[in-house]
Design goal:
The chain is mostly helical. About 75% of the residues lie in helices and about 0% in strands. The chain contains ten helices and no strands. Helix 4 crosses helix 5 and helix 5 packs antiparallel against helix 7. The longest helix has 23 residues. It is globular.
């Protein structure tokens, strides 16, 4: 779990720095920074989504995953957690003290940003299977720097996302440890990783659109699609082997 611990520490440091900066940044500056982040998130999403070898896989995954997510009410659950955090720690986390700061939005947005993507999946698997946390160390540095502008614009609620990082990355590493070598060799070029990444890119695009306030999308309800994409690849491989 070394990589997950590093990631948590990096987000805490970056989020704390961003919080201190946010108190000193004019509202217009924060708004521009947020729009810049939204644009960069869109670029990342497009880059991830364009890597698919079969557009139908992320398409089918997003449709089915979206239906499952709505039935599971994942977005409502995250919003509820954010609201509970507001009620309990809102004053301490500066809710409303700076224009644009919102505990729920900060928690949900940063949780999705830090936990959706190939580095989260691959890094956690490598850490669990091999004890190799190099990829998560790189991700930790990136997340730490990203937490600075997010916390400056959305508030210290970003710090709460360390709980999500711990659960998601820690859970994936623990699962990889339990499964052992059953996953085989895993890299960015592994077919199921490619489609998982592409589908995650679609989810990231939704986050970017929300940050730009173009359209509020219940992005969390699309999260099941990330699990469906590799399942489709595995089923195709089994069917092909059977033929």
């Amino acid at each position: 779990m070394t990589g997950t611990v590093l990631n948590i520490v990096a987000v805490l440091i970056g989020g704390s720095i961003g919080t201190l900066l946010g108190n000193r940044m004019p509202a217009k500056v924060q708004e521009t920074v947020m729009h810049g982040l939204g644009l960069m998130v869109l670029v990342i999403g497009v880059a991830m989504a364009s890597g698919t070898a079969n557009l139908l896989i992320p398409l089918f995954s997003v449709v089915v995953g979206g239906v499952l997510g709505e039935l599971m009410r994942i977005s409502d659950g995250l919003d509820w957690l954010g609201a509970q955090a507001e009620a309990r720690w809102g004053t301490r986390l500066g809710q409303g003290s700076v224009a644009g700061w919102n505990v729920t939005r900060a928690f949900v947005t940063s949780s999705l940003i830090f936990c959706v993507g190939p580095m989260t999946i691959l890094g956690s698997i490598q850490d669990g299977l091999l004890g190799d946390y190099d990829l998560l160390a790189v991700k930790s540095a990136l997340d730490g720097f990203a937490a600075i502008p997010f916390a400056a614009s959305l508030g210290p609620g970003v710090l709460l996302s360390v709980g999500t990082v711990a659960v998601v990355q820690g859970g994936l590493s623990a699962a990889a440890m339990a499964v052992g070598g059953g996953l085989g060799d895993v890299s960015r070029q592994t077919p199921w990783v490619i489609e998982l990444t592409a589908t995650g890119g679609v989810v990231i695009l939704g986050i970017g659109l929300s940050l730009l306030e173009v359209k509020r999308i219940r992005v969390a309800n699309l999260l099941p699609s990330i699990a469906i994409a590799p399942l489709i690849v595995w089923v195709q491989a089994i069917a092909g082997a059977g033929v």
